[in-house]
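Our example copied in:
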Amino acid sequence: MKRICTICARGGSKGVPVKNLAPVLGRPLIAHTIVQAQESAMFDAIAVSSDSAAILQAAEEYGVELLIRRPDALATDNSAKLPVVKHCVEAAEQKTGMAFDIMVDMDVTSPLRLRKDITGAVALLEDGGCSNVITGAVSRRSPYFNLVERGSDDFVHLSKPLEQAVTRRQDAPRCFDMNASIYVWKRESFFPEPKVFYEDTKLFEMPDDRSLDIDNPLDLEIVSFLMARRMGLETGVVDVTKED
């Protein structure tokens, strides 16, 4: 069974300019995900897809050999992610002559994952009898309790009211925020119909402190702080939660 890791990084970014190359602890942001994929020792191939020559050069400097030039049509502000992943895998298969059974996409903007998150998500797919696995953290808001929508009449209502209302958040059904960290698919499920949600999709749960996705400059500052704390760079005291 062969596995590929795709890392898709567009050159443009609205929230944080040149986000995927932003310096974080002495490395461009994309390098953290590349190194995590390499150190997981899970993959027969690691491929980086980008429309940016600078991003592809950075990936090459960190040891990536499969550099996939993304077509302009897949690199616009409105481009969907799944066609990019599919193009990356197809191009990697053409370059390597291999057919990959398991596809793992890791988002550059969610670099707080640990090796055990990667191995755990892949194991859940391979052992769990499902088409794909997504990752997420327990939601801070619940559509059954305190997440509301504004209706066409401009009045607000609970997003998912239950027949018997809950009076405590703890009594509501558990909900999760997707953290955009790791997506795992079986190729046989993905290629005929690329989707994030199938009828048998499973979720690999990650904690809050490994689930922040960078959308704006504040997110970037927080992620940098958390990574520095994990590495013991702020105080010289190594974080006991850091993985061996």
